[in-house]
Each structure stands twice: as structure tokens, then as C-alpha cells.
């Protein structure tokens, strides 16, 4: 989303929230006014006998009852609409707050960078290796935490048995310091891990005073029949 589109969306959201607040205030005022009218009608009705109007025709009394019933029914509908409006406004505010929190915590980079890993079925004991750099944004030492999703094929089928070793150098990252996260993927023992391309997503967090995401990477594991053959295939494309 461009900066201009983001600003336009922000203005639209702000205008919508203002409109909803105005509607809620107006609706609440009208509802209270309606309850006041019902109370006045009840007081008038209960006071009719006290005022000596017991000789009022039965027809008019029934008509008054019908009008009071209709008024009460409309006020109940009015109250239901206000409750529905309040829920809609609360949901909008909640989603708006969630989007702000996500942007603050995770930033505006929806597409992760790619880390290339290579292995060969001819040398299953040799792991595929790769690395990525991270930086500590805190004023204190921070400890890394990793979250790695499962490897899957291009069609989305998960691959079992791939063992991944993750480490960080240094293991405790100094304030505003840099560190390197290293990966080793062991293909020995993997089920159905034929030559091809496999994907997984890695997220790296640093835990200082709070936890913050510092990197998100898409791991692309290329397995060839031999390491040389895999390189030749890539060079011929």
C-alpha cells in the first residue's frame, strides 16, 4: 500500500469513527427522550382516575392502550438498533487497534527475505547451511528466540524428518549489537525428501525488557542429486 493510499485510508477510518460517535450520541439522546415520553404517558394514564375521568369511554381507553403499546414497541426497536450500533462501533475500534499494534510490533514488511540452503541426496550426512544477520534494538542484553515452521513442498505438502539446528553468535546479543543466526538442515532421515525445492518460514525474536521480532525469513532448501549437479542445473536456467 502506497503512502498516499495509507493516508487516505487513515482519513476514512477517522471520519467513520467520528460518524459513528455522532450517531451513537444522537441515538442515545433520542432513546432517552422516548423513555421520557413513555414515563409521561404512564403518569397521565395512572392519574386519569385520580382526576375523576372514570367516565371516559371504553373506546378511547382501548385506543390509548393501543397507542401506548405501539410507542413502547418502537422504543424497544430503537434500543435494539442502538445496541447493534454500539457493537459495530466497538468491533471497528477493536480491529483498528489491532492493526495499529501489528504495525508497531511487526513493521510494514509483509514479504520476508529469502535464505538459500543447498543439500544433496548423494551426501545426506552433509547438512545444508545458511545464515542471517540480526541487530539488538534494546539498551540491554537480549536473548534470541526462534520460531520455525515446517518445511513443505511447492504444492504445500509438509515434509517430515528434516532436522534444523539454529544457533546465534553471540548467544546473548549486546545492547544495539549485531549477531549472526546460523542454520543447519540435516536431510538424513527425512521422509519423501527427494531432489527438489522445499520451503519453511523462520521468525527470530529478541527478548530484552520486552520481546520484539527482529527478522523474518523464507528458507528455500534446494536438494539436488549431487551438490555439483544442483549447481549445474541452476547455472543452466
Question: What's the short version?
Answer:
The chain is an alpha+beta fold and 237 residues long. Helix content is 43%, strand content 27%.
Any key phrases for this structure?
3 helices, elongated, alpha+beta, Immunoglobulin-like, disordered C terminus, 4-stranded mixed sheet, 7 strands, 237 residues
Could you characterize the architecture of this molecule?
Strands 1-7-6-3 form a four-stranded mixed β-sheet. The chain is α+β, with helices and mostly antiparallel strands and 237 residues long. It has helices at residues 3-46, 58-106, 227-235; strands at residues 113-120, 128-135, 143-148, 163-169, 178-186, 196-207, 211-224. The protein folds into two domains: 3-106; 113-235, Immunoglobulin-like. It is elongated and about 100 Å long. A hairpin with a 3-residue loop joins β6 (196-207) and β7. It has three helices and seven strands; from the N terminus they run ααβββββββα. It starts with a helix and ends with a helix. Helix content is 43%, strand content 27%. The longest helix has 49 residues, at 58-106.
SSE order: HHEEEEEEEH
What top-tier CATH class of the largest domain fits best? Mainly Beta
CATH level-3 fold name of the largest domain: Immunoglobulin-like
Unreliable residue runs:
49-53, 229-237
Helical amount? 40-55%
Radius of gyration: 34 Å
Strand order of the largest sheet: 1-7-6-3
Gross morphology is elongated
The main sheet comes to: 4 strands, mixed
Q: What fraction strand?
A: 25-35%
Give the rounded overall mean pLDDT. Answer: 75
Sheet/helix structural class:
alpha+beta
- Total tally of structural domains: 2
- Counted by DSSP, the helix tally is 3
CATH architecture of the largest domain: Sandwich
Termini, distance in Å? 33 Å
CATH superfamily of the largest domain: Immunoglobulins
Number of strands: 7
Amino acid at each position: 500500500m502506497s503512502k498516499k493510499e495509507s493516508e487516505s485510508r487513515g482519513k476514512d477510518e477517522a471520519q467513520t469513527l467520528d460518524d459513528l460517535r455522532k450517531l451513537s450520541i444522537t441515538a442515545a439522546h433520542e432513546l432517552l427522550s422516548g423513555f421520557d415520553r413513555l414515563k409521561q404517558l404512564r403518569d397521565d394514564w395512572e392519574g386519569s382516575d385520580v382526576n375523576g375521568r372514570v367516565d371516559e369511554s371504553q373506546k378511547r381507553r382501548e385506543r390509548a392502550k393501543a397507542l401506548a403499546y405501539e410507542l413502547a414497541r418502537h422504543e424497544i426497536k430503537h434500543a435494539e438498533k442502538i445496541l447493534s450500533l454500539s457493537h459495530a462501533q466497538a468491533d471497528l475500534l477493536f480491529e483498528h487497534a489491532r492493526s495499529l499494534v501489528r504495525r508497531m510490533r511487526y513493521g510494514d514488511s509483509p514479504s520476508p527475505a529469502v535464505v538459500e540452503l543447498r543439500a544433496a541426496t548423494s551426501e545426506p550426512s552433509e547438512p545444508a547451511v545458511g545464515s542471517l544477520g540480526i541487530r539488538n534494538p534494546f539498551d540491554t542484553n537480549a536473548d534470541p528466540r526462534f520460531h520455525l515452521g515446517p518445511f513443505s513442498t511447492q504444492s504445500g505438502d509438509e515434509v517430515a524428518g528434516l532436522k534444523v539446528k539454529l544457533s546465534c553468535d553471540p548467544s546473548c546479543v549486546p545492547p544495539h549489537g549485531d549477531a549472526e543466526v546460523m542454520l543447519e538442515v540435516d536431510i538424513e532421515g527425512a521422509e519423501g525428501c527427494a531432489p527438489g525445492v522445499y520451503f519453511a518460514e523462520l521468525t527470530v525474536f529478541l527478548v530484552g525488557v520486552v520481546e520484539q521480532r527482529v527478522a523474518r525469513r523464507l528458507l528455500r532448501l534446494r536438494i539436488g542429486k549431487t551438490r555439483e549437479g544442483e549447481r549445474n542445473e541452476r547455472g543452466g536456467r
